[in-house]
Amino acid sequence: MIxxxxxxxxxxxxxxxxxxxxxxxxxxxxxxxxxxAYEPELNVITILQRIAAQATTSDGKKVNPVTWDCGCLExxxxxxxxxxxGKVRQSCSALVDTLMKEDPDxxxxxxxxxxxxxxxLMVDRKRLFRGLxxxxxxxxxxxxxxxxxxxxxxxxxxxxxxxxxxxxxxxxCLEACPQYTKVExxxxxxESDEAFEERQNKAHDEAFVGANAISQAVLFNNHxxxxxxAGERLDALMGPGGIAACGNAQNCVSVCxxxxxxxxxxxxxxxxxxxxxxxxxxxx
Length: 284
Ligand code: SF4
Ligand code: SF4
Ligand code: FES
Prior knowledge:
This protein has 10 helices and 7 strands. The strands form 2 sheets. The protein has a 5-stranded mixed beta sheet. It has a two-stranded antiparallel ribbon with strand order 6-7. The protein is an alpha+beta fold. The longest helix has 22 residues, at about 260-284. It binds iron/sulfur cluster (SF4) (2 copies) and FE2/S2 (inorganic) cluster (FES). FE2/S2 (inorganic) cluster binds next to loops.
């Protein structure tokens, strides 16, 4: 139990933080307990900074600082995702006072389980970005000349597109998805960087692409310039690891920190791929 601060009613003196650590890719994980002095309005990143500064476990053992990933500290970059008290979320916006209402005894920090661990709480989200590449989640406007103003976007389309454009590639939807299973390849002896990357890309392309990439395909297919790649995006979604792998469990939509209507995107993508398949059949 957390000891209560005798000077402040119902306020703990210490926060027990249990961290799942792993020293390197492929190594056995282990748990470590840290004790941090309570202060109001801490977030999980501050707790990790305190753990790094102390670098000592609750039983006085000197340890290496815990590694984690973060960038913006305002729920925009998507890099600080971890499993906190059993739920995937952003550590920068996870407030300790709120978490202690969920579990007053301890704060439990784990890396996402669907991506290979690089070290401690830091994971390799390469597969997530490969998924965005696979569905060409961009507007193709690169050029060396001024192409003038883009096409106007109808208000209706703006309203549909804006929520989808807030995706920060955090991976929460992928962590929660039962169909998105971990792909972790081990480098073979003597394998070159290029050969390993090629093997990794192939494995990532064959595995389920996930809700975020499906939703981004819907976003860019509804953009006046992005539409030019619509067929290629739908082809990607109809191929291996595409939309057919979605089991419609709807876990993704319930954990998205940006409240993106992912299941609506999945339904739209499903309809578009069916129409695309019929059109292709008639074009034969
Ligand atoms: S609806 Fe599809 S993408 Fe979302 S959690 Fe379920 S299986 Fe995964
Ligand atoms: S769809 Fe939501 S949960 Fe998934 S990566 Fe984007 S912001 Fe994160
Ligand atoms: S640090 Fe950028 S989303 Fe948390």
